[in-house]
Amino acid sequence: MVSGVSLNRGLQRLVASVPNKDGTQGAFLRKEHLDEFRLLNRQWSGPLPLDQLWPLTTHQFRRTFAVFLLRNGFGSFLQVKQQFAHLNLSMSMWYGRNAEIATTFDMEQDVDIQVELSEMNALLMIDIAEKIYLSDEPISGRAGLNIREQISLGNRLFDSRDEIEAAVRSGDLTIIDNGHSLCLNPSCEILSCVIDPVINSVLCSHNVIMEKHAKQRVALRERLIKRHKNAVEMNINQPNLMAKTLVGIRACEKVMADHGIDYEPYGALINITIQGGV
Known about the structure:
Number of strands: 5
Mean pLDDT: 82
Oligomer: single chain
Strand content: under 5%
Distance between the termini: 36 Å
Helix content: 55-70%
């Protein structure tokens, strides 16, 4: 959890930029803010009134919050959409635009928060790795099944949590949470798991699927079945889409079977065959 000290410092900086001792309300754009302002507001084409009071609006606070959230890695555009109760994601993306550029250049980021986030990420990675390499929790995915097979043969990559922690902190072990699975390849540049996570996360040789990911497949499979049935009832003539939906259903069923989750196989005849590496 982020400490109150870091958040208080952030609030103090915000309050300091909004003078109100004389009764005025607004914020000053100082010369030291100019580079950051231009970076975050690259579409701005008008003059920039330096050292003049800008009237405050709720829009400014929404924009500031969205950029702060994205810039410091506290969430994604989906969290912005949920927080602002936007009807569509494009509005949330408009509020948070250019935040990734600020992140890239590390402009005026709160160092304390970044250190805390880095430590939290390391501890989370260690906990996950401990479940993968030292526990009996069911895992699947090609990498997961291979790890379990090697352990059954007596080939253990790690023998203790301390060894895992040392590997994580040295950078020898990295686990990337894709939401639908875990990737053990930090240099992976293949976009297939991002573009089509339902199918390719099952096929990828670097992926581990945990119990929580398998449970997500239950609801996902139901949605895919509903989509396929609706397409059949509406006589939609799109063979590629229909086949992809069926393969997605079979991929979900394979993960569920690997984790011992009961299900009634969907009636359509199509199988998913795992071969080769991704």
